[in-house]
Amino acid sequence: MKFGKIPLEMAKGAILAHTTRLSERTFRKGHVLTPEDVQSMQSEGIEELIVAQLGEDDIEEDVAAEKISTAVLGRNVKVGKPFTGRSNLISSAHGLIVYDKASLDNINLIDQSVTIATLPQYEIVSPGQLIATIKIIPLAIPQRLLENILNTSATGRSSISVEPFEKKKVGLIMTHLPGMKESILDNTFKTASNRVAICGSQITHQIRVEHDQTIVSEKISELTKHCDIILIFGASAVVDELDVIPASVVNAGGHIIHFGMPVDPGNLLFLGRLDKLPVIGMPGCARSSKLNGFDWVLWRLLANIDISSR
Fold it and tell me: In the beta sheet, which residues pair with residue 256?
């Protein structure tokens, strides 16, 4: 691609680099100049233009943007009509945006003329929401560069998808100690219900019991018959994997996947499982409606995204 200022009479078929306004018409950046366009500009005294002139192996910006968008298109996402070298990816579901960051970084590092921008990984998105933009920086890119990017995208790891929330039955166990006000549990239930509802699910079973390992274990076993996810909020913060709440999960026949999380607030969360049923030991900060680490774990489970220690 050649780029620069040329005499107006040589600009037929070139791509206009900057918006040019005449007395009765405006030519937008990226417009391909026709003989009639050149004549109109000559009549208003324009002698030179800054343009891009494509070579045989150059791919125009909109075409390149659309091809790359299609290459990274994942589940529950659609491609918008390209314009000015930009192609947007739009969510078609309510869920979490997911992609492999390293793979997208690799594409962004191939050449400065091609960029992929996204919302943060695992952010909640809605149908019709813009979640990513593929932008070609210059007015065209070489065919060999486009092929390189498409080949890099072919592995599928660079796909940008939306994992939809699935309506689930959530069970909530809350423990209490002597002297604890019932209003605390009421507010905890209300806050947890709102969190779950945001993702299209519902707390269908609520149990309030003493802070006792044997009792909690029995209630966990009961909920496994009715729920898809179990949340447990202890009256006292969990300080060890052998503490009452995680020990109750093990005693009920489950296991702890991970205790503790490098997130603040929310670092005292634990994640367990009974067969295929996820169990979350909720951190104390989950009593608050403010965003915390518990939200990030809950969202993923409600979108059927597996969670490991990593």
Answer: 272
